[in-house]
Specification:
four-stranded antiparallel β-sheet; alpha+beta; five-stranded antiparallel β-sheet; 25% helix; 18 strands; single chain; globular; Alpha-Beta Plaits
C-alpha cells in the first residue's frame, strides 16, 4: 500500500541538497508516538537484521539548485509505501489530522493524501522513484572495514537484492519465503547517485528495471522497497504500464 501525499507552501520549499533524513523525520513525527517509537527503535527482526518495512520517494516537483540548497516550487508530491497496514493507517491519520507538517525549516500544508495498492505480477517493469542501494561490508587486511556498492545489472547486486527481499518477506509474513529465483535486469543503463544521509555517504542507482520471479517477493519489492536502506528513502519502485 502507498500514500501519495500532495504538499503545498506559500513560497519556495528550501532544503539542503541531501534531505532524506528530513523526509524520514517528517514520516516518524506524523505517526502515533508508540508505533513510531517501536518502528524507529526496534522494527521487525530476522536473523539479527532489523527491518522498518517502509520506503519513500524523493520530493517530486519542479526545483532548482542554488549552491548547497535545493529549492522546490510547490506544490510537490511525496510517495510513501509499506506493506504494514498499521503504518499506513497511523501515517494517514496523522497527516490528515495535523493538516501541516514541518520539513526542515519549512512549514508545509498537507493538501491531499490518496491511497493506492499496486499489485505485482510475476514479471514487472519499474521506475526507481528513489535510488536503489546494494552493498557488502568487508574487513581490510590491515584492520578496519570498507563498503563495496553494486549496481543493477551486476550478479552480486541481484544476489543481495533477492536475499534482502526474502528476509523482508520473512520479517513481514513470519514464514519461509516462496521458492524461485528473482531476476533483475536493467532496461536502460542505471544512473549513479552519491548521497548523504546525515554524515553517511551512500552510493545508489536510479533508472528502469525489469523484475521477474515469485509474485509475493515482487510484491514485497513494490511495497517495502528494493535493496537496502529503504527507510532512509531508498529503493522505491513505481510500476510501469505495459506500453511504457
Amino acid at each position: 500500500m502507498r500514500l501519495n501525499v500532495e504538499l503545498n507552501a506559500t513560497g519556495s520549499i528550501r532544503l539542503p541538497i541531501h534531505y532524506n533524513h528530513l523526509l524520514q523525520s517528517l514520516i516518524y513525527h506524523s505517526m502515533a508516538g508508540e508505533f513510531a517509537e517501536f518502528l524507529h527503535d526496534q522494527g521487525y527482526e530476522v536473523e539479527k537484521r532489523k527491518f522498518k518495512l517502509f520506503t519513500f520517494s524523493r520530493l517530486l516537483g519542479p526545483y532548482r539548485i542554488t549552491g548547497p540548497e535545493i529549492l522546490f516550487t510547490p506544490p510537490v508530491r511525496l510517495i510513501i509505501s509499506s506493506p504494514l497496514k498499521e503504518f499506513c493507517q497511523y501515517l494517514l491519520n496523522g497527516l490528515l489530522s495535523q493538516g501541516s507538517v514541518r520539513l526542515g525549516q519549512n512549514e508545509i500544508n498537507v493538501e491531499k493524501v490518496s491511497v493506492s495498492s499496486p499489485e505485482a505480477q510475476s514479471e514487472i517493469k519499474v521506475k526507481l522513484l528513489s535510488p536503489v542501494v546494494a552493498y557488502s561490508t568487508f574487513l581490510k587486511p590491515e584492520g578496519g572495514k570498507y563498503t563495496c556498492y553494486f549496481q543493477p545489472g551486476e550478479q552480486e547486486f541481484n544476489r543481495l537484492a533477492e536475499e534482502n527481499l526474502r528476509k523482508k518477506y520473512q520479517a513481514f509474513q513470519g514464514k519461509v519465503p516462496p521458492a524461485g529465483k528473482v531476476q533483475i535486469k536493467c532496461i536502460k543503463p542505471p544512473r549513479l547517485h552519491l548521497l548523504k544521509y546525515k554524515n553517511l555517504v551512500i552510493k545508489g542507482y536510479s533508472g528502469f528495471l525489469s523484475l521477474q520471479g515469485p509474485q509475493p517477493l515482487l510484491q514485497m519489492a513494490l511495497d517495502a522497497g528494493l535493496g537496502s536502506k529503504n527507510s532512509m528513502g531508498f529503493g522505491l519502485l513505481e510500476m510501469l504500464n505495459r506500453n511504457e
